[in-house]
Write the structure tokens for this entry.
Amino acid sequence: MPHDFEVVARALLGGAADAIIAADRDGVITLWNPGAERIFGHTADEAVGQSLDLIIPERQRPAHWKGFSEVMRTGQSRYGTGDLLSVPSIRQDGRRISIEFTIVPLKDAEGTMSGMVSILRDVTARFEELKTLRRKLAASQPQ
């Protein structure tokens, strides 16, 4: 028996494994699921209504907003078709983490971009492991 769409949607949005964050076309957070709370440390009440700058390190903001604006303008992104974007992010406690995410453009009834949803995963442990392995490999190479 197939599952009802709403049951599946509630299960996905209520899950704590991955962060699911929606933002309007101005980059204001409109949805913040339990996974986002777990990964970033902010509750939904603290995050909803805030700018995405909440989780974007200051140095990355110009590049983020340039890309965000382009997706809002065109409705297109390669990160909506399966490619993962890997970037640094910041938690409520100020700790930097590494995340990977995809985006899903949100369009209104006329097809105009109204925002986007991102599905994000904390990959800090894997990123640190790769950095360590690369350092060890470099150190083992003859000079």
Q: What stands out?
A: The chain has five helices and five strands. The longest helix spans residues 124-140. The longest strand covers residues 96-107.
